[in-house]
Design brief:
CATH class of the largest domain: Mainly Alpha
CATH topology of the largest domain: Cytochrome Bc1 Complex, Chain D, domain 2
Largest sheet: none
Number of helices: 4
Structural class: mainly alpha
Number of domains: 2
CATH architecture of the largest domain: Orthogonal Bundle
Helix content: 40-55%
CATH superfamily of the largest domain: Cytochrome c-like domain
Mean pLDDT: 80
Oligomer: single chain
Strand content: under 5%
Radius of gyration: 19 Å
Length: 123
């Protein structure tokens, strides 16, 4: 019986270690923007927001400026365009643009996109 319990504990420990290496928390949420990408830096994302997004979006309000206010954006179930409010769909909007928003693919690099997503998640 002791061998079976210690084996179970060892398997559980290995699973937790593998999840940590993959960036998955015990709640099943990813600590990264996608499985193959490192997490962004919210402080750097704040600068990208200031340089590229602030002209059209409020960060501390849901009020419309030119585009929608982004306060609490990632706490919503869906974006205004109907897409699920998650990192991957936010990436798509940032890169491709939207109704009146230009896309930023080729304007900001992948690291800046990850940083921007990390920042928007803090709003």
């Amino acid at each position: 019986m002791r061998n079976k319990k210690s084996g179970t504990v060892a398997v559980a420990a290995l699973m937790l270690a593998a999840m940590a290496c993959a960036g998955i928390t015990t709640h099943g949420q990813s600590a990264r923007t996608s499985k193959s990408e490192p997490a962004g830096d919210a402080a750097k994302g704040a600068q990208v927001f200031q340089d590229r997004c602030e002209i059209c979006h409020f960060s501390t309000s849901t009020k419309k400026k030119i585009g929608p206010g982004l306060a609490g954006l990632m706490k919503r179930e869906r974006f205004d365009n109907g897409m699920k409010a998650d990192d991957e769909h936010l990436r798509i909007v940032i890169e491709r643009g939207g109704k009146d928003m230009p896309g930023f693919r080729g304007v900001i690099n992948d690291a800046q996109v990850r940083d921007l997503i990390a920042y928007v998640r803090t709003l």
